[in-house]
Amino acid sequence: MDFINQIINGLSTGSMYALVAIGYTMVYGIGKMINFAHGEIIMASSYFALVGISSLGLPPVAAIALSVVLTAALGVITEKVAYKPLRGKGSLEVLITAIGVSYLLQNVFYLIFTSSGKTFPDIMPQGSFHLGGLHITYITLITLIISGVCTGVLLFFIHKTKMGKAMRAVSEDAGAAQLMGINVSSTISLAFAIGSGLGAVAGVIYGAKFSLINPYIGAMLGIKAFIAAVLGGIGSIPGAMVGGLMIGVAESLTISYISSDFSDAIVFGILILILLIKPAGLFGKNVREKV
């Protein structure tokens, strides 16, 4: 039963990675770029929720809603200010800008909140329950439910709404979509907003799960979520979800049966392995380019 418990814990952590990975994959699928500042935007969401609860006295649900709105706005502002002027430029310029935005956000929150860790309020029920021989914490169960609901709502939006269909059209061929009257710029901004908003949920879950946040938590969280997106096939939302869950389970089993010292190494090893065996990822498609 201990093995099953570790699988469940891994799925809980992995669902958090998956929400962040979806942000990476949406921005890449629609804007054809990697937002390497995404992890720092998630970090910001944790502080937004913390301020909402501790300083403004908001109830947890209202604070989470505030965090989602502010984080989505931060994602859109980042896209408009840092990335929009670089459309049509080379990938190197975008990469350097993303790294610059990442360090900028880290240092802004360092100046405001200092580098010392801040205790995140208990906003989820503590304790656990037993189901047969399984030992499941309430935080684990709530994390899985929230992540599943968010993913389901996103998939419904993408496939069943007018804006979702516009996003799919831009992802397939931005030029043709623009000729059909779709505002490509607004669609890319919407992708940033949705990806950042989902990431905000992951940021709140992170704070509730680990109880301590600082300006640097987004770095490793963002890297692991990016690995999850690559593993699943960057550009594929179901792939990002599956990749996140796989990374979470691998990490949990490594910590439990090998050593926590090797958990990050195993995750990076998975990235190297998938790039060697299937570079497009589990759900990705190889795209031929004319030269």
UniProtKB/TrEMBL annotation:
It is found in: Cell membrane. It is a multi-pass membrane protein. GO terms for molecular function: L-isoleucine transmembrane transporter activity; L-leucine transmembrane transporter activity; L-phenylalanine transmembrane transporter activity; L-valine transmembrane transporter activity. GO terms for cellular component: plasma membrane. It comes from the Bacteria. Belongs to the binding-protein-dependent transport system permease family. LivHM subfamily. This is Branched chain amino acid ABC transporter permease. It comes from Kandleria vitulina DSM 20405.
